[in-house]
Amino acid sequence: MAAVTRRITVVTAGHLSSCPRMLKAADAFHDAGYQVRVVSARHTEWATAADLAVRATRNWAWRVVDYGRASGWRRRLTTAARFRAAGIAARAVGAGRVALPLAIRAYSRAHDELVRTVASEPADLIYGGTTGALAAVAEAASRLGIPYGLDLEDFHSAEQDSADGELANALATRVEMATLKNAAFLTAASPMIADAYRSKYGVEPTPIHNTFSLRFSEDEMSDRPGRLRLYWFSQTLGPGRGIEDAVEAAGRTNLGAELHLRARPIEHYVAELERLRNRVAPTLAIVRHAPAAPDDMVPLAQPYDLGLSCEQTRVPNRRLSLNNKIFTYLAAGLPVVLSATPAQAQLARDLDGAAFVYEPGDVDGLAAHFRRWSADRDRRLCARRAARAAAERRWHWEHPDDRGALLQRICACL
Question: Quick check: is 112 in a domain?
Answer without folding.
Answer: yes
